[in-house]
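Technical note accompanying the year-one report. For the benefit of new consortium partners, we illustrate the data format agreed upon in the data management plan: each record pairs a sequence with a C-alpha cell string. No post-processing was applied to the example shown here.
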Amino acid sequence: MTILVAIANDSVSSAVIDTAVRLADGLDEELYVVHLVDEDTADGTAMQLRDEMRERFRDATIVATVAIEHVGRSAMRSGTRIGNELLELAADVDVRHIVMGHEPKGLAGRLREGDAAVAVIDAANVPVTIVPEGPADV
C-alpha cells in the first residue's frame, strides 16, 4: 500500500513532504507524491516542482513516485474539485493514508474556491494528515 502525498507550489509543501517521509518510514510504506494541475499539459513551474521532488527522493531510503496529474474540469469550485481528484487517485493507487497541506483562505476564499482539505477529510475512507501552514517567522 501507499501514502498519497499532495503537494503544491506553496509554502507548506516542504513540511508536507517531511511529514509524509516520517509516516512512510514509520509505517514502512511507499509514497506517491502528486502535484495536481488544471492545464492539460504541465507548465514549466509544475515540471520544475516535479523535478525538484524527484531529486529530493533520488538517494532516499523511502521509495517515492513523483507525478503531475491533470485535474478534470467541472462546475465544482477549484478546491472541491482538487479534493475530489485526490480521492479518486487514492482509490486508483490503493492508498493507506493521505498527507496534504492546508493554507487558510478565510471565509470568502472558502466560499469562492472551496477547500480541498475539507473535501478530502469529509469523504476519505483512509486516515488523512493535514499539515497546516506554519508561522511566517519559522
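Partners are asked to follow this layout when depositing records. The chain has a mean pLDDT of 81.
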